[in-house]
Each structure stands twice: as C-alpha cells, then as structure tokens.
C-alpha cells in the first residue's frame, strides 16, 4: 500500500514516526531516542550537502528512506518540536480548541530535503494560573474523531496519565478546559531524592493492596491535610511495621494518584451535576493504576483508547488539505475497551 502521510510525534526525549496509508492505516512506525533535548550531533550528508543541524539529522534518520521512496509525501508533526526550543515555534492556540482551529494554525519549516514539515501548535488556557499542552492536544483530537456525534455532545473527560498528567474536558468536539498534575514527576523526585526513598525496596511486582491503601488515605478525612502532609506516612507506616520496604513505593504511588483524582473530582463537582465518562489515553500498567483510583472515587464509566496520536495527526492533515484524498469513510475506530 502506498503511503499518504508521514506523521511525527516529536517530544522532549523521543521521536516517533508513522508512515500512514489510506484512511490513516499505520503501515510502518519507528521510535528513536532523538527528542528535542537529545538530538544527533554527528554531521553527515543530507541531500548532497554536509549537515550538522540536529533537527535535520533526526528527521532524516527517522524517515529519510521513506522520502527517498516517495519524495512528495506530506509531513505533519506535533509535540515539543513546535516549542520555543523546537525546530520552529508554533504559537499556542487558545481554548476552546478544535481540529479545525489547530489545522488552520500549522507552522511550516522547510527541511534540507526540500520537504515541508507542518507543525501542530499547542494549546493555551488563559486564566489566573495559565495552563499549556503540546502534543496532548493531538491525542485528544484523535480520540474525539473516533466518537459519534451523540458521544461528543455530552461532557467528556479525557485523561492522559504521565509525568505531567493532563485532564481535558471536551464538549462538542472541542477542548474547552484542562488541568495539569505533575504527579509522575513528583513521585520520581520523592522516591529518588528524599528520605522517603531510603527505606523503599524496588520490586517488579505491583502490590495492589499497598496502592489501594494509598488511594484510600487520599480519599479519607486524614487525606484532607493534603499531599504535603500525607506523603510522610510513607515513612512512618514503614517505621511502625505496617508497610514493608517493597510496599512503600506502590503506597506512595497510590497516595499521589489518589490526591490527584480527589482534587479532580472536587473541581468537576463545582461545574458538573455528575461525574462525566472518562477515556484514558495510552496503554500499560500506569493506566491500571489510574483506573483503580478512578473507580475508588466514584467514576463509573472508564474506557481506554490507543493509537490516538497517529489518528489525531491524520485528522489534522485531512482538515488542512495536506492529503489528496480526504475521505475518512471506513476508518478503523480507535481501540476502546472497558
């Protein structure tokens, strides 16, 4: 099958490249450790000229052979490649944001090969405490494109767990509000650089009971003191023999994720009559942890979505007119399961 689009998810630490065929089908994909902070440094020829630009080198390594075979393939990219430290800055677009608005604001950089890379801007939410996202907006658009009109008409909460977890509220197919929780990064800092890590013993086995205990504490009256107080219980429960060293890491994980979900539900209760349906983007054990915490806090409908990035990049390219045959009839749906 001939490709119709090259889609790039270019973040801080990695570069994922997709060769997409008819109706957005993934024909081939690659992952490189060439994020914008880890670009190649060894000069080599590109298009007959010596090149030392890290972005050019990474781009050529990721998909140069694809472009050798099909030189006129359009290229669309999202993520930190469009930041102020990226290849070309794509200025944030303000909420509410839709696939149409973001597609109309693409920023183009011309590569040494003579190929234009179209970069998706991030999203800015202006408020007393502003919020931003880069890359996650494309994943959200990918999820929204898979839903029926009746599903997008209802308030929807889309979660993107990670170092900086994003919780996006979408209405009528648009991103209207989002919140960021630095849960993953805080967990790494606490377990690696504070006294809490001194008594932790690393384990490859997930201790669900210890995790659930942490979630429960965050949801309890004792948890009302907030995470700055309750995290010390990771140490004291170890000192008093309630948790052994192998349980403490999962307890701390449950405590922090639990505080995140408690805070999120409190925010939602200020504006919603009931807790909305949740779609979690991604795969792997982290999503299992978030589902357990959501279930414990009364979120009754939680599903999972994979392949959101490539689907979102395809939708942006279609909307921007980068693909010659824009029909998306028959596109396979995102993998969504209970």
Please give a handful of descriptors for the protein shown.
Nucleotidyltransferase, domain 5, 6-stranded mixed beta sheet, 2 domains, single chain, alpha/beta, 338 residues, globular, disordered C terminus
Fold and architecture overview:
- This protein is α/β, with parallel strands linked by helices.
- Helix 6 packs parallel to helix 9, helix 8 packs antiparallel against helix 9 and helix 9 crosses helix 10.
- It starts with a strand and ends with a strand.
Write a short abstract of this structure.
This protein is of the alpha/beta class. The chain contains 11 helices and 17 strands.
Strand numbers in spatial order across the main sheet: 3-2-1-6-9-8
Element order: H for helix, E for strand: EEEEEHEEHEEEEHHEEEHHHHHEHEHE
Which shape, going by the Cα principal axes?
Answer: globular
Provide the helix percentage: 25-40%
CATH topology of the largest domain: Nucleotidyltransferase, domain 5
What is the CATH class designation of the largest domain? Alpha Beta
Major β-sheet annotation: 6 strands, mixed
What's the number of structural domains?
2
* Secondary structure tally, helices: 11
Q: Ends: how far apart?
A: 32 Å
β-sheet strand percentage = 15-25%
Low-confidence stretches: 326-338
If classified by CATH, what would the architecture of the largest domain be?
2-Layer Sandwich
Mean pLDDT: 93
Question: Helix/strand/pairing class, anyone?
Answer: alpha/beta
Radius of gyration: 22 Å
- Total count of strands: 17
Question: So, the CATH homologous superfamily of the largest domain?
Answer: 2-keto-3-deoxy-galactonokinase, substrate binding domain
